[in-house]
Structures are given as C-alpha cells and as structure tokens.
Design brief:
The complex is a heterodimer. Chain A is of the alpha+beta class. Chain A contains 19 helices and 29 strands. Chain A folds into three domains: about 150 residues, Aldehyde oxidase/xanthine dehydrogenase, molybdopterin binding domain (Aldehyde Oxidoreductase, domain 4, 2-Layer Sandwich); about 200 residues, Aldehyde Oxidoreductase, domain 3; about 325 residues, 2-Layer Sandwich (Aldehyde Oxidoreductase, domain 4), CATH 3.30.365. In chain A, strand 11, helix 6 and strand 12 form a beta-alpha-beta unit. By secondary structure, chain B is of the alpha+beta class.
C-alpha cells in the first residue's frame, strides 16, 4: 500500500490516548469508586497441595465492618471455570494421542487446594483493611499432602496426584508431523545434533495487577462487571453461560483502561466470578484488586517446557529432518486456553522459515501443584522459535558452518500466496532472505566477526547471535480453529456509526491495553472516509456498547479488528453512494467516493460532502425510495487464514569471564509485519517485546521449591524484571511483505520481539563461549552464576 | 483501630483527615483524597508506580505511612501540568511514545522530574541508572530514555 503525504496510514502520529495517561487521568479498574462499595479479600491456600478438613468463618464474620464471608460450599449451583480448548479424539481433533483430562476448577475450592494461592474463601467488608483483617481470622484446618512441581517428577510412578483422574498427572498427549519420514531423514543424514532445551516458566507481570468491580442492581437484575480483561465479551460469555448460569443480556462487562496484559488478562479467573456471584448475594458493589504477591500466585504463567530436539543435516548443510519431544507443565488447573498453547500454537510453528525435509513433534501436557500455565506474549510460538533457533545454531556448530550461512542455505524462497509446511499450516507470504540481508547490512557482520576474533586474542568473550523467526497471528478462520478444538470463533467485530453532523464513532471488539487502538484505528478510519481524525472516536472494551467481539491477543487487532472496521466503512460508502446519487440526480453506479465527498465519477464539481450525506441519512426528506434511513453498519470479519509475520534479529553480547555476567551490547531487529499503520507504535511494541525476550534469556524465571511447592520468586524483589539500566537502545528496521489474507495487508506486530529475542541472546552467549568449547546451554536465565559455572566447567574440561 | 489526624498540602490544596496509623500514603492519596493518578503496582517498593514528590524529593508513596507525611508539601502527577500547560517531561513522553499501557507512566514521570533537577543534562547511562527504581513492562525503556532526553533539551532551551 503506497503511503501518500495526506494519508495517515503509515504515519507516526502521536497517540490520542496519551494526554489522559500523562496527566494521571487514566481510568483503571482500581480507580473506580461506587456508592455502597464493599471490598473483597481472598483466603488462599498456603500449601501447594492440601485437603481442606474444615473452614471456620465465625471469627471473620464477627469482625467489625464485615458484610459477608463465603466459602465454596456456599456457592451452590456455580460450576467449574471452563477450559475453552478441547483435545479429545471423539471430537475429531487432529493429533490427539491421549485425550485431554478435563478436570474441575471451582471458583473457590472446597475439597483440595492444588497450588499455593488457590482461593478457598472470600471476605467482603466495608473497607479494604477490614476485609484483609477478617480474612486472617478465617480458620482453615488443612491436611497437607505431598506435592509435585516439576514435570519429570509428576509423571514418575508414585508421584502425588494433582487430580483424581485415571491418567495420573498426564493431562494429554499430542503429536503432529510424519514420524516415518522424519525417521528416514535421520537415517540419511550426514550429521545429527540432539539437545535438551529447557524453556523456563515466566510470569507476565503486567504493571497493573488484575482487578474487578462487580455491581448487581437489584431493581433491574442487571450485573455490571468492570474487569482487567483483554476480551470482555469472552469474559462475559464464559462467566454467564458456563460458570454462573445467568443470562448474558443481563450482564455488562467493561474493560476500561487496562495496564498491560501480555496474555495474562485473556482468561476468566476465580476472583471476578466470585465477586460477580457475591454481588448478587449481598446486593452491593464489590471491588477486588490483586496484590502483586497474589498476582504471582494466581495470574496464569507462561512457557515451562522441557524439550529434546534433534536436527538432521546433510553434509553441505541442508536441513533434512527435525524431531521434537516436549513436556509442557500446565500447572494445577486447565486455564482458559491452556491446551492450545503447547500444541496448535507450538507444533505448527516448528517448520520455521526453513525448507525442512520432515518434522515430527510429540507433546505431553502435565499437571503439577503450581499456578496454571496459559498464553504469555507469543504463547507457544516463542517456545517453537527457541527450540528451532537453538538447534539450528547447534547444527551450524556441528558442521562448523557460519550460523547466518546455514540459515540462508535453508530459507524458504520468497513467495506470496501459500507455502504448505510439514506441520499443518500454510504460510501467507514471505521473504525470509530479504529480512536477513537487511539485518546483515545494518549489523556490519563481517566487521563484528573481526572484532570478535580480536577480542578473543585479548581474552575477552564477545558473542554474536541470530534468530530468524516466524510467527502466526490473527489465528483463523473460526471453522478451522473449531476443528482444532477451540470453543470459540476467532473473528472480530467492527461497527461504524456515522452521526447526523458527520462525526463517526467506531465500536471495535478488539481491546487496547497499551496497543494504541484509539490512534491507529482512527488513522485507518480517517483515511478511508477522507475526514479529519478529530471527527473519529474509537470505542472499545464494553459489551454494553459493542457487538460481540473476541478481543486482543495473538497480534490480531489491526489485521482482524481493523479489517472488520474497513468492511463497515465500505458498507457506509455503498449506502452513501445511493443517498448521494439521489441528491445529485445520478445513478449510484456513476458515483464514487473521493477525498471525503461523493461525486459523479471524474467530476469533482458535481459532489456531495460526507457530512451532507450523513445529515440526509438522518433527516431523510429528500431520500431514495425504499432505502432505510440512518447511516450505521456492523461487520464481522472471519479471516481465511492466519497471517505469518517474520524477521531476522541479531545481537552482540560480552561475557565477563571472571563473573559470568552477560552484557548486551547491541540489539538489531528487522521485522516484517506486513503493512504498518503507525511505525512509531509498531517500533514501540518491538522494543517492549525484545525487552521481554531478553528478560527471559538473561534474568527472568519463576522458581518453585521442589519440596514445599512454594513459589520462591513471588515478589518483584525475587523475580528479576528487566530494568532500564540492564538494556541497550534497540536498532529496528523493517521489510514490508503485505499479507494477501486481509485487504489491509497487515500481518500483526505485538509479539515478534518476544519470539525472536530469547534465542538471539542465548545464541550470542553460546557463541561468546564457543572458544572455550561450549556448544549449548540447556537452561535459562543466563544469570552470572549459571554462566560462571559453565565457564568453570568448560575450563576444567580442557 | 484508633485514628490519628493528618494535614498536608497536595498539589497546592490543603487536605486533612483522620486516618488509621497503618494507612499507607499511596492509599491515602488514592482512596481518601481521590487522586487516582498515583498507582500501586507491587507490594515491595520495586515498581515505582506510586512515585510522588514530597517536599521536593521523589519518594515512593507506598514506603510511607500517611501520618509520616503530615505537614508535608506533596505533588502528584495531577499537579505537574500548570495552567493547562503540560510539563516538558509530560510532553516528552507524548512526543517520544514513552508510554503504552500508561500504568507505570505517572511514577516514571515523577521520577524523571527529580532526575532532571539533579542532572539537567543527563547522559543515556545516567537516565537508565536513575530509573532503576521504576519498572515498565511495555516499552523496553527505549522511548522512556528518549522522552527524558527530549525533555532535558526542551528545559535547557527554556532557561
């Protein structure tokens, strides 16, 4: 799509939402105060696994200011939180080897607590402090049970069982690809490499903790839930239809300003269900805001895979086959989309950007006494990219071939239309060598290798690492995801309401929690209609206003949500042409829409401006016969395929021999996300994604004590969040390969950095240590202690 | 729990209440006074989302009891723009896309106020070091650094 000067599409305009945020006038859930408000505090299990022998709430109920105390036994008629993704053979879902064990997840558990933080009771009081004080007076009699946190121990015989299901702690087994062809590829290979690759558990850590306010209006029977959600309609559907059994049309879910999500705010959680239910009991509004420690214990976490990966190569470096066996830790319960993450969002991406000969992947999902694992920025795709990019580097080392060269040798050639992979999905368009070329230009690779050689002579450990990644975004069509086990469709809604005076309100089913939709969608609409951006308002996050939408995750908003808006605008234009033709006494087919006016084709002087058509639509005195008044259109867009952004990232690190400390010296990212509405916003997402990816490589990790099952890293003091002085400035660039899937040519940009950065950094550290004989590092994060030990072991081995 | 009287100035306005001695200053500002621009992002004084200016010093308002602030002169994010004119740091965050979800932003901006008072011409390293006490999960800090550099230039030019 060409960017012309007067178009906003493609321009880095400042964000329209910023003035409220930079002046402290954002509207987050915890900012909300309602008349008669009460406050909830949850009583949680201090044990990783324990039977509840009894709960005495007497002292808590007697505490001054307490309105009510509820346990799971009080919530009669309330069902389990649903898992929205099925993996069972009888449903015809591909790849299922052993059916998913669908286990209950009650909003307040009343028999057994299965992870530290599992809620067992709620105290509701007139003040936050009274609720917290009284929660401490709830006396639970616990019978602690043995617990298990690591997947290898959980599937060993005699392990404590997290749920009472016949398959023990195995939640499911799943496989994809051609096992026989992969075996044959390995037989014919000149070189094979096999590595154990651990992708540690991460915590999303959106800066705003989860929160909800539930208000039941006894006079109308309506419930309003304000909640930190990335997808308010999904929240409403799951809560109403599956858990509480209340009619959807009597429930309004509002997700106002939300302070980051990164996946963790997609899911339906215990607390919002309990507060919604309890508000109906006490007939007063209830607010609950997570403490950060509660967030660590209860927000769905990410990753946590242990993988054996093998790559088969020919002598001259052709990738012949890939064999992957992964064990995925699902935690204690099945979070909303948990089964999809290590299966259809992971196995389907293992083809990467390479013309691999054959692939086979097996995944075992495992229950443990830990917090549930679900989608975290990238969700399955970073895990796939990490496995592939690490094993490709290991292959390059085995062949003594330059890692950039090995990648280039195996790239899928430039294409647009379809490239069928060995793992079910068909790519949309790509120019993978183009991205690497641009990266190497910016990077000055030859010079860097010379610097590295020079540094080695001085005893300095400099390393260069690459990652050439692919991502799958805007997952669709609904029919396909349904066949793969999804309980939901993956379309998006977009409603465009033209007001009589020519202003436009756009209602999108997407939800912004940092993405800047109020700006980017307005750019799109202002361009399409040829009207000033000031005349466009974007509304999101309210089921009471917006047609049913699926929300924001998986980098889908611009490509799916934006297209839905475009479709409605096209309908507006079509109707507008009929109105304008009537006013111009012309035929509708002779009218075109140009620069904000309906005109007779090629005759700009014979025209009606947009505003006049809008007014005529609502004051239809001189109006086409048979045409409905009004100018408002709704569309639901269900894409025909996924979109596949890609790119090439590289970085330079220096490892301090004496301490093992890794310093990230340079980070270069070339991304191809298709067409870009606002480059400033896309760059910002790349920056943030890279920081999270680097965070995983170097510092972050959720650590459970294997004996007690306690989460050791349960505060920001213990979980190492990346800080400003740990990161460099990022160098970003783009190639543009529009997707043929949607009319905007947009692929999606929200997760690329997180996917690409982790392997780039680890590959660079391994490269830095290559001179010491190190060719692989099994586990992350690459803390000074871990790297120092690797250096010592390497030196001792020499 | 018996309550104690507190009196202080917030954004030029005198406020006084009776509060529980254990009430944290951040909760007083948010819940009692109703200024919700100051945020709470953690329980352990790591995140810095609650940073305010107290008697000319940037402090994390979760590290103080309200009673410790009695008599203090406090400025929160709501008091930074003067007469409808954004402070150069606020402008810098807007110009340079120094925020995404906006949750850490008030604390970041207040920390930057102190930073530029101490270091009117900060290097990139100085900015990064001075922001050690403020966490952002969206921006990767790149554009926050740029925003503060932009503000430093703007403030130097205005002198």
């Amino acid at each position: 799509m060409a960017v012309t000067e007067d178009r906003l599409f493609g321009k880095s305009i400042k964000r329209r939402e910023d003035p409220r945020f930079i002046t402290g006038r954002g509207n987050y859930v915890d900012d909300l105060k309602l008349t008669g408000m009460t406050y909830a505090a949850f009583v949680r299990s201090p044990h990783a696994h324990a039977r509840i022998k009894g709960i005495d709430v007497g002292a808590a109920k007697a505490h001054p200011g307490v309105v009510a105390v509820f346990t799971g036994k009080d919530m009669t008629g309330v069902n389990s939180l649903p898992c929205g993704w099925d993996l069972r053979k009888e449903k015809g879902i591909p790849g299922v080897v052993e059916d998913l064990a669908i286990v209950p997840h009650m909003p307040l558990t009343s028999d057994v607590a299965r992870h530290v933080g599992d809620p067992v009771a709620v105290v509701i009081a007139d003040s936050q402090s009274a609720a917290q004080d009284a929660a401490e007076k709830v006396n639970v009699t616990w019978e602690p049970l043995p617990s298990v946190t690591a997947t290898d121990k959980a599937i060993a015989s005699g392990a404590p069982k997290v749920h009472d299901v016949p398959t023990g702690n195995t939640a499911f087994k799943w496989a994809l690809g051609d096992a026989a062809a992969t075996d044959a590829a390995f037989k014919s290979a000149a070189v094979t490499v096999k590595k154990r690759i651990v992708n540690q558990r991460l915590v999303a850590n959106a800066m705003e903790p989860r929160a909800c306010v539930a208000r039941f209006d006894d006079s109308t029977g309506d419930l309003t839930l304000w909640v930190t959600s990335q997808n308010p309609h999904v929240h409403r559907l799951l809560m109403c239809a599956f858990v509480l059994g209340i009619p959807e049309h009597k429930v309004r879910v509002i997700a106002p300003d939300v302070g980051g999500g990164f996946g963790s705010k997609i899911f339906l959680y215990n607390e919002e269900v309990v507060c919604s239910w309890a508000s109906r009991q006490i007939k007063r509004p209830i607010r609950w805001t997570s403490t950060r420690r509660e967030a660590y214990l209860t927000d769905a976490q990410g990753r946590d895979h242990v993988t054996e990966a093998e790559l088969a190569l020919s002598k001259d470096g052709k990738m012949l086959g890939l064999r992957v066996k992964t064990t995925a830790n699902l935690g204690a319960y099945l979070s909303t989309f948990a089964p999809a993450v290590p299966t259809f969002l992971y196995g389907t991406l293992l083809n990467g950007v390479y013309t691999l000969g054959a692939i086979h992947v097996e995944v075992t999902g495992v229950f443990t006494n830990t917090t549930a694992v679900d989608a975290y920025r990238g969700a399955g795709r970073p895990e796939a990219c990490y496995v592939l990019e690490r094993i490709v580097d290991a292959g390059a080392a085995a062949l003594k071939m330059d890692p950039a060269e090995l990648r280039r040798k195996n790239f899928i050639p430039k294409f647009s239309g379809a490239y069928q992979t060995h793992v079910a999905v068909s790519y949309d368009s790509g120019d993978y060598a183009g991205a690497l070329d641009k990266l190497l230009q910016l990077f000055d690779y030859k010079k860097l290798r010379a610097e590295q050689a020079e540094a080695r002579t001085q005893g300095r450990l400099l390393g260069v690492g690459f990652s050439t990644y692919i991502e799958a975004c805007s997952i669709a069509p609904s029919k396909l995801v349904g066949a793969l086990g999804a309980g939901a469709g993956l379309y998006e809604s977009g409603k465009v309401r033209v007001h009589p005076t020519g202003g436009v309100t756009v209602y999108t089913g997407s939800h912004a929690h940092g993405q800047g939709h109020e700006t980017t969608f307005a750019q799109l609409v202002a361009d399409d209609l040829g009207i000033p951006i000031e005349q466009v308002e974007i509304v999101h996050g309210d089921t009471g206003l917006i047609p049913f939408g699926m929300g924001t995750y998986g980098s889908r908003s611009a490509s799916v949500g934006g297209t839905a808006i475009r479709m409605s605008i096209d309908k507006i234009k079509e109707k507008g042409k009929k109105i304008a033709a009537h006013l111009l006494e012309a035929s509708p087919k002779d009218v075109e829409y140009v620069n904000g006016q309906f005109q007779v084709k090629g005759v700009p002087s014979k025209a009606v401006p947009f505003g006049a058509v809008a007014l005529t639509a609502y004051v239809p005195h001189n109006f086409p016969e048979g045409l409905e008044p009004g100018l408002e259109e709704t569309s639901f867009y269900d894409p025909s395929n996924f979109c596949f952004p890609f790119g090439a990232h590289a970085c330079v690190v220096e490892v301090e021999q004496e301490t093992g400390k890794v310093k990230l010296l340079r980070y270069v990212a070339i991304d191809d996300v298709g067409n870009v509405i606002n480059p400033m916003i896309v760059d910002g997402m790349v920056h943030g994604g890279v920081a999270q990816g680097v965070g995983q490589a170097l510092w972050e990790g959720a650590v459970y004590d294997g004996d007690s099952g306690q989460l050791v890293t349960s505060t920001m003091m213990d979980y190492a969040m990346p800080k400003a002085d740990m990161l460099p400035m990022y160098e970003t660039g783009r190639t543009v390969t529009p997707t043929p899937v949607n009319p905007l040519g947009i692929k999606g940009a929200g997760e690329t950095g997180t996917i690409a950065a982790t392997p780039a950094v680890v590959n660079a550290v391994v490269d830095a240590l290559g001179g010491l004989g190190v060719d692989h590092i099994e586990a992350m994060p690459l803390t000074p202690e871990r790297v120092w030990k690797i250096i010592q072991a390497a030196k001792a081995g020499k | 729990m018996s309550k104690l009287p507190v009196k202080m100035t917030i954004n030029g306005q005198s406020v006084s209440h009776e509060v529980e001695p254990r009430l944290l200053l951040v909760h007083y500002i948010r819940e009692t006074v109703g200024l919700t621009g100051t945020h709470v992002g953690c329980d352990t004084s790591q995140c810095g989302a609650c940073t305010i200016m107290m008697n000319g010093q940037a402090v994390k308002s979760c590290t103080l009891f309200t009673v410790q602030a009695t008599g203090a002169d406090i400025m929160t994010i709501e008091g930074l723009a003067k007469d409808g004119e954004l402070h150069p740091i606020q402008q810098g965050f807007w110009e340079k896309h120094g925020l995404q979800c906006g949750f850490c932003t008030p604390g970041m901006i207040m920390a930057a106020v102190q930073l530029l008072e101490r270091h009117p011409k900060p290097s990139e390293d100085t900015i990064r070091h001075q922001l050690e006490g403020n966490l952002c999960r969206c921006t990767g800090y790149h554009n926050i650094v740029k925003a503060i550099e932009w503000a430093a230039d703007k403030m130097a030019a205005a002198k």
